[in-house]
Amino acid sequence: MAIFCNAIREYAQRVGKQRFFLYGEVLAQDETIQEYLGRNTRAAGGERFPSLDAALDFPLYFELEAVIKGFNNPAALRQRYQRLQAVYSDHGEAGRYFVTFVDNHDRNQRFMHHNQYPEQAVLAIGYLLTSQGIPCIYYGTEQGFDGGGDSDAYVRECMFGGNWGAFASSGGHFFNNEHAIYRSIQAIAAVRKQQAALRYGRQYFREISGNGADFGHPIDGHCTLAWSRILDTEEVLVCMNLDAAPRQDWVTVDYHLSHPGWVMQDLVGADRQHLQIEERNGRACVQVTLPPHHMRILRAV
Known about the structure:
Elements: H1 2-14, E1 23-24, H2 30-33, E2 54-56, H3 58-68, H4 75-87, H5 91-94, E3 98-100, H6 119-130, E4 134-135, H7 180-194, H8 196-200, E5 202-205, E6 208-209, E7 224-231, E8 234-241, E9 247-252, E10 263-266, E11 274-276, E12 278-280, E13 283-290, E14 295-300
Parallel strand pairs: 1-2, 2-3, 3-4
Antiparallel strand pairs: 5-7, 6-9, 7-8, 8-14, 9-13, 10-11, 10-14, 12-13
Helix pairs in contact: 6-7
């Protein structure tokens, strides 16, 4: 495989494609995936060649959906990144080796299958766009496609159905750039483009508190899930309400990068809230109000 991948990469360089990106599907845990990535590739003697630039992040895929839908404790996500840190010494750089996703052409049902909360699709893609990794949006997720069945044919719906359209989509057109999910994802992607920390920063999950005194990581799926991306001296805080009810929680930020007395602005919410950073129980934190299945991206201004 390494020789095959290197041949493709060398051909791309020969014809002038200097930034050729090659990623693959390795359905395994991090220790095995690492063996296929770049100079990590294990060669059985002889000359060593780089293999894949990145691989699909299946370890994240198998945890993320249940967490976003509130079925699993978010501790599963934290544990996934702890395992990542055990494999890669520079965990800020580790994200460039993984292509993250929530829907996939080889699965039997989509994220939105039998799901009555379209806002959760925004949270799922919002997570990809604001966490470590190279986000990949499978076509149709941004349109709320909800296929599912006993084979992967049900997640291969037609976006532009001609005479061959499946599932009664013949003659239909399903790419709507005014769709609510599409527009929300578009807004989050625009913030990602503006904030380098969301693309390259280290990632830290944040402790929360309902009363501003007792802090801890969420213990169930009905929570505010929060994490910071930190790049050099900049911190961007992402907060998601995974619950179907409104929430208001104090969320920890880095005391040295986001000082008490400063103000954080929401970069993506329609109300563009400004939140005061306060000192509570010896830590810097902000009180974040979130409607059901809503997210905010905050940065000190």
